[in-house]
Amino acid sequence: MAAPDLDLSSDTPHIHPPLVPEQYRTAADVETTTIPVFENEESRDLITANFTHFREDPFSFLKQISLHYSGTGWRAYDHIIGQPIFYKGFSEQMKMRILRSALLRAKISELAERRATVEDDAGTFGSDKKRVIRRQKRREEIEKQLDQVADGIVDGMICKFESKRFIRGAYYLCMQLLARTYDQGIHVSSQEIQNLRRIAAMAAKKKQSLIFLPCHRSHIDYVSLQVICYRLGIALPVVVAGDNLNFPVVGKFLQNAGGMFIRRSFGGDELYTSTVQSYVDAILKGGYNFECFIEGGRSRTGKLLQPKFGILGYLLDSLLSGRVEDAWIIPVSTQYDKVIETEGYVNELLGIPKQKENLWDFLSSSKVLSLKMGRVDVRFHDPWSLRGFMDEFVSKQAVVEPEQPATELRLKMLKSLGYKVLGDINKVSVVMPTSLIGTVLLTLRGRGVGKSELARRIEWLSDRIRVKGGRAAAFGGVETGVVVERGLAVLGDLVGRVDGLAEETYYAVDRFQLSFYRNMVIHLFVSETIVAAAMYTRIKQGGGISNQRVPYKDLFSQVSFLSQLFRGEFVFPTEGIVNNLHKTLRGLEADRIIKIGYKDADKNELEYVELTEEERQCGRENYDFYCFLIWPFIESAWLAGVAIIGLTPPKGNEEVWVGIKEAQDMAQLAGKTLYHQGDLSYFEAVNKESLKNAFQRFEEEGILITKKSKAGKNPPVLRLSPEWVPQRDPATGAMLHKGQLWNYVESIAISRREGKNRRDSASVGSRVLTLVEKLGAELFADAVERTRVEEEEIEVEVKKGRSRRGSSSRAKL
After folding, report:
1. In 10 A of CB 790, how many CB atoms?
2. What's the DSSP call for residue 721?
3. Which pLDDT score, from 0 to 100, does residue 187 have?
4. Is residue 262 included in any domain, yes or no?
5. 734 and 606 share a domain?
6. Which of 27, 63, 620, 791 shows a CA-CA span of 20 to 30 A to 482?
7. How many CA atoms lie within 13 A of 685 on its CB side?
């Protein structure tokens, strides 16, 4: 059973009707607010129940403003769970803690000593008896200068929890924004909230921090989490934000609401690095709550990105060093019926230059304020002790590798921490109705689907999600058909409807944008999709059951290859490939999709897998579902591989390096061309994030070599590893359709979805290779020209340097 969602916008929080009406009790551990707690778990609305427009009810509207301004009841934010915040002098206290930290003082002293040593070695202080005194004086001057630099860094970085009146107003403004944009509210689980408040109270007594680690898909992520914490009376977390958001007005607003601004890249700046670490230490030592996004930036594709280990490393080091005793990790999933920024994401993924971040334009946009985009679901995983995780990890590693170097152990621990958080986020994520609709529309063979069939497949998908341990948004007793109508209304013009038919029929209008919502589902079925794609190498041949039977040896080989190929794209189960494969096969067999053949009666050794007769009779609809989920990613990997073949250097250009960005742009241009010519099935396969991941995977495989170029900003460049360079016909110079790289790309291609004009592989090879060779030749020509210009610029700078040195010598004479 599940507990209903809470509406926290009114003076007396209440809930929407659960699936089955029940009596509720008052939670004993909720000190400042009476919050109903149900025996079941699914919740409803958090913000919209008492929301009123001025035009609809001016009196109620003005009353709400007055209550927030005066701080009536819970709005006062006086008795929070956590350490005291929002008082005059908070920022100055935190600033002093950072600047006086032993870590930062030691780094400033070290940097000053290093600089003084350099100047001493250069003879700056002379060689007489007063050299030591002059050196010491200079060292002190450098320390004062570094102190000033650190002071400026801290002042621009730290959040400024100073005014309760400000935060009351900020909360009210955010509620207005959210209620207008997400008209069905923010939904949380009352059971998870009860547990969160319990852990928060326990941590507060021990002066320990709650570390919120959410996924990141929208600017709304941090707004919604701050709103939830405020309404529940939990101390607001300090939120890590990129300094690109620190611009006039908005930057100050965010800083006073909990924003901690840091650079996107530290660039080897040791003072800045130590300042950030000292700030993280001060937050955790003081028991203040903290929030950072585990993926770094926002996901443009809808699925979870790989974890970023920057800030996560600082958190880990605070405990590893012993400066902090413990903290509580809280993975958070935020899911949307519709994400505001998806249209902009599509433009970015298609290579249209990204516009500079401007949160003010985003928040003040009339488009944002007038949309009705459904609801937001925020789910909290059970909090767990970071110290407990570390101790358990060290114990396990001591058994596996007792003499492990500390740096290697830390790196493994950091990676394990990152992927554990991602796994926990996936476990609590709720699949929204719009994601169900988008997934079904993009995993059907036909042009469109009738309303009744759409509802049937949504019910099937919801069941599969729950069987996999996932969560599908509860319909609250509403018929699936009604849920479909609501979801279609939210998706708007992304889905089209054909009128004048015997049945309402819907089709995907913007498949690229809809893929964002489909990708919110794929994490639950990654293993099944890999197996389905591996089986497709035989199933696509057609014929009878025996003709489509896949030997286990071949299946395992292709599953292993695809799993390695996509290890940077998806988060896989951690049980190991053999155990995971067998578990997946048993699940598919239980679903009556496949049949497993064994070599012995005891079923100890697998011999083959094949589709069941039942699955064949239903038109392979369940098996095809898994294929359609993974095919766009296979297409993207294949496209990247084909583009890499195009990087085979023309004769005489064997030592030429090409820019990584230019190579990826070339792959994207090739993909757009191949899609419109019919050689690529999915337009979303040309998105630059998937291509970037594929290039990264090829580098890890040793197919590509990358390095920094000689250009001023050091953009990375690449070329094919010598052993992977395809051979050419000595007589004609034409590329031969064989070799290590060709075979690698073919291993991807055999799991691709077949198209009507792609059955003749020789024809495809000819068409595709002709295109990428042409684009590759242009890329090499541009690289050669750019290298020539760079060398000329370097020569000019060298001559200028000689001239300046000569002028300096003449001046001394």
Report:
1. 14
2. -
3. 87
4. no
5. no
6. 620
7. 30
Are both 532 and 668 inside the same structural domain?
A: no
The whole-angstrom separation of Cα 641 and Cα 744 is 8
Tokens coding 79 = 């008795």
**What's the CA angle centered on 430, arms 428 and 433, to 5 degrees?**
175
Q: Is the dihedral of CA 11, 16, 21, 27 positive or negative?
A: negative
Flag whether pLDDT at 35 surpasses 60.
Answer: no
Q: Do 448 and 319 fall into the same domain?
A: no
Q: Beta strands 25-26 and 14-15: pairing type?
A: unpaired
Q: How many structural domains is the chain composed of? A: 4
* Judgement on whether residues 340 and 446 belong to the same structural domain of the protein: no
737 and 592 in a single domain? The answer is no
Closest C-alpha to 549, from 563, 560, 535: 535
Residue 252 lies in a domain: no
pLDDT in tens, 438-463: 999 999 888 899 999 999 999 999 99
Tokens 């170097």: give the residue: 405
- Please name the residues in contact with 126: beta carbons below 8 A apart, sequence gap of 6 or more: 134
CA 748/CA 750 separation, integer angstroms: 6
Strand segments (E) across 359-452: 376-380, 384-385, 430-431, 449-450
DSSP 238: E
Query: pLDDT (tens digit, 9 = 90+) per residue, 591-603?
Result: 999 999 998 888 8
- Rounded to whole angstroms, what are the CA distances from 494 to 52, 343, 450, 753? 29, 10, 16, 24
Which residues are within 8 A (CB) of 677 and not within 5 positions of it... i.e. 6 or more apart?
Answer: 767
Query: pTM of the prediction?
Result: 0.87
φ, ψ (nearest 5 deg) of residue 580: -65, -40
Q: What is the CATH number of the domain that holds 465?
A: 1.10.10
Q: State pLDDT tens for residues 741-764.
A: 999 999 999 999 986 555 545 656
Q: How does strand 238-242 pair with strand 290-291?
A: parallel
Contact 219, 362 (CB under 8 A): yes
List strands edge to edge, sheet with 550-551.
550-551, 606-611, 594-598
Name residue, tokens 């060292």.
Answer: 139
> What is the C-alpha separation between 309 and 415, in angstroms, rounded?
8
Residue 182 confidence class, pLDDT cut points 50, 70, 90 = confident
Do 641 and 767 share a domain, yes or no?
A: yes
Q: Which of 104-113, 443-452, 523-532 has the lowest mean pLDDT?
A: 443-452
Same domain, 436 and 423: no
Contact 607, 599 (CB under 8 A): yes
- 433-441 vs 451-467: helix crossing angle, rounded to 10: 110
Q: Which domain holds residue 545?
A: 523-619
Residue 588 has pLDDT above 60, yes or no: yes
Residue 593 CA: distances (Å) to CA of 543, 589, 621: 18, 6, 9
Give dist(CA 140, CA 721) in Å, integer.
51
- With H, G, I as helix, E, B as strand and everything else as coil, classify residue 775: helix
- The verdict on 566 and 639 lying in the same domain is no
Question: How many Cβ atoms sit within 10 Å of the Cβ of residue 74?
Answer: 19
Q: How far is CA 621 from the centre of its chain?
A: 30
Whose tokens are 């993924």? That residue is: 349
What values do phi and psi take at 557, rounded to 5?
Answer: -60, -45
